[in-house]
Each structure stands twice: as C-alpha cells, then as structure tokens.
C-alpha cells in the first residue's frame, strides 16, 4: 500500500486524527484529493464521515471544536479548525433520479464505497485515509481515478449514459473539468455527453449558468465553447448562440466571466443578446457589464481626450472594453495606455467628480432646475478637454462667464 504525503494543513490532519482515535471514518474526498494528487494545493478540504450529522456535531463539540450545522438535511456540518472551516459530510447514497436532476431520496450510509460510487467522474471519486502515523495518507481509489489522472482523462464512474441521465448537470460538469484540468474526455463518456445533453432542459438556468461561468473562467475557455457547440450543448446555455467569430482570442482576456462572455457575444444584435443574458439569470451588475462590453464602440482616434471620453461613457468598464475589442483584432494598446494613465491620474470624467456642485452654481445665480444640470454638463465638457481646469475657482469663473453671456440681451 503506497503512503502519500498530501498538502493537508496540520489542523485538518489533527481533526482527522481525532475522528480516527474515536473509531470513526473521516476521509478527505473529491476535489481536494484530486487536486492534491495533481500537485495543486486544494482550496478546501471536504471530508466524508461515517457518522450521521448529529453524531458529527456532538463528537466535534466534545473534542472542543466550534461546529456550524450548515446543511444537516444533506449531512453537512462545518467544523472550524485553526486552518479554516472543514465541511464534514455524512457518506450518502442516492436513490433513483426519476426527474433527471434530483435524486428521489438521499440516504445516509456508513459505507464510504457507496459514497464514492455516487460521484460523477473517476478523478472526483477518490478519498484519502489518514494513516496511523498521523502524517501520511492511503488513497482509496475504487474506479481507477489515479490512472485517469495520469492519462489526463475525464471518465464517468460507472455507465456514462446512466450517470449523465441521472443528473444532466454532469454533462456540463464533464466539460468544466476537461477544460479546467486540461484533460481529454474518454470516448464513451464523450458519446454520452453528446447523447444526454437534452436532459439539460430539466436543469435550472441558475445551475447551468454557474457551470458555464466556471467553463469560461477556466484556462481553456475557447476549447470549452467549442466543446459546448460540438456536443450540441450551447443551445441549453445560450439559446441565441454566440457571435459568428465570438471565440476571438478568448484566452487573451483575464479569467473574468463578464469579459469572456462579452467576447463570445461581441456585437451580437441587441434582441438576441438580451435573450442570452436573460437566460443566464445573472445579477444586474454582471448583465449590465456584459451588455456594455459586448456592444461597446471604440473611438476612431487615439488621444488623451478620447480616452477620457471613453471613461466617461463606460466608467470602470473602459479598459475591459478595449481588452474585449482587442480579442477581436482591434488595435487598442495605445488607447489602453491612455485610459490607464487617465485612471491613475484620477482625471475627472463624471459630474460627481467635478470640483463644483449644483448648490454652488445656484448661489452664483443659475436658476434651480434643468439649467443646473446643463451648466454642470457644460463644465464637465471643459474639464474633459482640459483636466487641470477641475478646480473650484476655475469652474466658478467658467460658470460666471456663461451666466453673464446668457444674460446678454
Ligand atoms: P472545484 O475545485 O472546482 O470546487 P470539486 O471537485 O470540489 O472541484 P464540486 O462541484 O465542488 O467540485 O463538487 C465536489 C465533489 O462532489 C466532486 O468532486 C464530486 O465528487 C461530487 N459532486 C458534485 N456535484 C456532483 C454531481 N452533480 N454528481 C455527482 N457528483 C458530484
Ligand atoms: Mg469544490
């Protein structure tokens, strides 16, 4: 039996050891084991335990841990350790999936094998047991996950068609892990991804959207989009499809969902764009960013003034817009520099940054109402053309000039 050294933080190891001393099974499982075996430091350590949640709670309390009953119904309690929170979830088996998205029943089990068998892909279905030395681990790998890691393969646990029909979200998860890890998809699993995609029509838009975001934020977003299209999954994600040359140079963009999604939807007709955005069920803020970035217009001339105008129009989205346009072949590097230096100079590009406000204008004699807004806009124009004019004294002078001009018969 090979003993593995995994980058498990000491306080998590100590927790596992306390469970072991109490005669209870507690196994790091899923993503953390996969990542650790790949040499990637896991972002969290999920632990499968053989106690039911109430037992997990009382054991941990007896051991002096603070415990949060995060999702008792699903078997999850969160144990707070010196190395962060650890989710301890009771081993589970799932009943049938007559609706293709939710198990008919989840039952707790004391059997780790059952818990591993319900997991989606072999590389996600490994657990690790802390050895008696309290330091090393034995990897529990019932479905050849280690061989698939070595061969860089995404492969379903069990029969792919059965597993992807049970829960169609796994179809998108398959694509997600392939692009996140840079793995190929086993031919039988690939065929099932193609055959079972229609099941996504029963999955909530929100869950689909979360997977799509992870696919686009992966190191291979273009491959992700290509897989979605080739496997016939795109209509379930973006009902109106993507722009003809949507993938552009997706990878050149930072791993930010709004930017990469805007790149896919670049210059798409507005009604189609809106339909796509609506179906992704995103927050208003992200929807707005995608709309602005994908519809954005780049000024034809390159000058500090056009950089400031771009900032006025798009705010903090000005630079991202230039990046998205560049991913579609526009030459924007000079404007990018100008926008960046305007941002660091904190040039005033909006009414609220003007060194004068409406109240002051009224005290100078501008009549309350529309005239105030018009005067502020005129002053902003001056400041956009000449940023050094954004001082109270200069703007009062400019305002007075205009007031007296307007008063002339
Ligand atoms: P990441 O680091 O991206 O979070 P992860 O492997 O932890 O990767 P999660 O989506 O957090 O991915 O899921 C945790 C684990 O739960 C998976 O590794 C897998 O074993 C199991 N799992 C999650 N969702 C499903 C599902 N729909 N069907 C089967 N198993 C699942
Ligand atoms: Mg996870």
Alpha-beta classification: alpha+beta
Global mean pLDDT: 95
Number of helices: 20
The percent range for helix content is 40-55%
- Distinct small molecules bound, one entry per kind: adenosine-5'-triphosphate, magnesium ion
Q: Give unreliable regions as ranges.
A: none
The largest β sheet comes out as: 5 strands, mixed
The coarse silhouette is elongated
Strand order of the largest sheet: 1-2-5-4-3
From the alpha carbons, calculate the radius of gyration and give it in angstroms. Answer: 28 Å
Strand content: 5-15%
Number of DSSP strands? 11
Characterise this structure.
The chain is an alpha+beta fold and 409 residues long. The chain is 49% helix and 11% strand. Strands 1-2-5-4-3 form a five-stranded mixed sheet, covered by helices on one side. Helix 12 packs across helix 16. The longest helix is centred in the C-terminal third of the chain and has 16 residues. It is elongated and about 90 Å long. The relative contact order is 0.06. The site of adenosine-5'-triphosphate (ATP) has 9 residues, from helix 7.
Question: Would you spell out the secondary-structure blueprint of this structure?
Answer:
Layout: H1 10-21, E1 26-28, H2 31-37, E2 47-49, H3 53-62, E3 66-71, E4 76-81, E5 84-90, E6 92-94, E7 106-108, H4 112-117, E8 127-130, E9 137-140, H5 145-150, E10 153-154, H6 160-166, H7 169-181, E11 184-185, H8 187-196, H9 205-216, H10 221-230, H11 234-237, H12 257-264, H13 270-280, H14 284-295, H15 304-314, H16 318-327, H17 333-344, H18 358-363, H19 370-385, H20 392-407
Parallel strand pairs: 2-5, 10-11
Antiparallel strand pairs: 1-2, 3-4, 4-5, 6-7, 8-9
The structure holds adenosine-5'-triphosphate and magnesium ion.
């Amino acid at each position: 039996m090979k003993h593995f050294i995994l980058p498990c933080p000491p306080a998590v190891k100590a927790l596992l050891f306390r469970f072991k001393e109490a005669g209870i099974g507690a196994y790091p499982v899923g993503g953390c084991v996969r990542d650790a075996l790949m040499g990637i430091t896991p972002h969290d350590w999920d632990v499968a335990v053989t106690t039911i949640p109430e037992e997990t709670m009382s054991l941990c309390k007896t051991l002096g841990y603070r415990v949060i009953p995060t999702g008792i119904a699903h078997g999850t309690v969160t144990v707070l350790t010196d190395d962060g929170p650890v989710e301890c979830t009771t081993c589970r088996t799932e009943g049938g999936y007559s609706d293709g998205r939710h198990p008919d029943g989840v039952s707790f089990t004391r059997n780790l094998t059952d818990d591993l068998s319900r997991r989606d892909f072999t590389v996600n279905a490994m657990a690790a047991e802390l050895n008696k030395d309290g330091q090393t681990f034995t990897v529990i790998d019932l479905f050849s996950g280690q061989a698939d890691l070595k061969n860089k393969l995404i492969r379903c646990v069990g029969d792919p068609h059965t597993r992807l029909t049970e829960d169609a979200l796994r179809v998108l998860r398959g694509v997600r892990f392939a692009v996140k890890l840079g793995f190929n998809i086993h031919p039988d699993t690939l065929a099932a991804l193609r055959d079972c995609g229609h099941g996504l029509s029963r999955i909530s838009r929100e869950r689909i959207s979360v997977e799509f975001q992870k696919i686009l934020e992966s190191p291979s977003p273009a491959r992700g989009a290509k897989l979605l299209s080739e496997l016939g999954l795109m209509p379930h994600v973006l009902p109106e499809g993507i722009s003809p040359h949507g993938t552009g140079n997706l990878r050149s963009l930072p791993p930010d969902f709004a930017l990469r999604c805007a790149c896919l939807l670049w210059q798409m007709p507005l009604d189609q764009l809106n339909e796509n955005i609506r179906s992704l069920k995103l927050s208003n803020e992200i929807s707005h960013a995608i709309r602005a970035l994908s519809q954005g217009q780049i000024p034809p001339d390159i000058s500090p003034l056009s950089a400031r105008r771009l900032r006025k129009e798009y705010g903090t989205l000005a630079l991202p817009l230039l990046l998205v346009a560049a991913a579609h072949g526009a030459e924007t590097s000079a404007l990018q520099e100008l926008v960046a230096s305007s941002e660091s100079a904190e040039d005033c590009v909006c009414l609220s940054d003007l060194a004068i406000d409406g109240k002051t204008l009224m005290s100078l004699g501008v009549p309350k109402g529309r005239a105030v807004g018009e005067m502020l806009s005129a002053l902003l124009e001056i400041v956009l053309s000449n940023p050094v004019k954004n001082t109270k004294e200069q703007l009062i002078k400019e305002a007075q000039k205009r007031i007296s001009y307007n008063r002339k018969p």
